[in-house]
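Sorry to interrupt, but I need a hand with the structure work. Can you supply me with one protein entry, sequence and fold together? No commentary is needed, just the two lines. Leave the record below and I will have a look.
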Amino acid sequence: MRAEYETLAVERRGEHVLLITLNRPEVYNAMNTQMGLDLMELFEGFAIDTLSLRAIVLTGSGEKSFCAGGDLKQRKGMTDEQWQSQHAIFERMVRAIMGCPIPLIAAVNGVAYGGGCELAAAADFVYASTNARFALTEITLGIMPGAGGTQNLARAVGERRAKEIILSGLPFSAQDGERWGLVNRVFPPDELVAAALGIAERIAGNGPIAVRQAKQSIHRGLQMSVWDGLAFEIEAYNRMVPTQDRHEGVLAFNEKRKPVFTGR
């Protein structure tokens, strides 16, 4: 992981938590080619080395926008081939985010339109500020969501609600998102990032192997029949039995102290 990125700010919060901020506030953190490359590089790196990170928070710079979606000013005048080449980067980026072994919390601090909504939906769960607004507006531009929106949103809110959102292109509030299942919790704007970092710290304090295995079991199990999901779950469970962390967790419980997990 590099210390600096052109379109992102990355900051360790303690030993095991990383805060990633989409950092193009002058254009409401709209996603250009470079942001796609930066996110792709960062998250693909975590698949190789987690860098002792145990939780990640993703938010946007400023008070008005998480991410306004694709940078349409950059896209103006693109040939079909240039558009598809750029979108291939976004496709690889969202797959890296969805495949990240580290729990990812989206802290949506304002507008999350188009690709911004898709970024939020690709996270493990979403905290949002009261002023957050979501929309998948691609249909209004003659295209459709292509960075996981038709898949991740439908899995969060259900098929019928996803069709209403995507086919109309209408925006919805953080409160609507919470009622429908996209947003986990809603906070005042000045409390949002602290709340997201707080839950990240709690996750980071749990057994890192157990957290990663549970995350994979939930996500992959939902793509299977319940019987295949149960088989996947027990395979994930059995991997933890011989770990030092499992022994430490039980010992700490019996010694009435906080466990010290090492990820081994």
User: Anything to note?
Assistant: The beta strands are 8-13, 17-22, 55-60, 65-67, 104-108, 111-113, 125-129, 133-135, 172-173, 185-187. The chain has a mean pLDDT of 96. The first helix runs from residue 33 to 48.
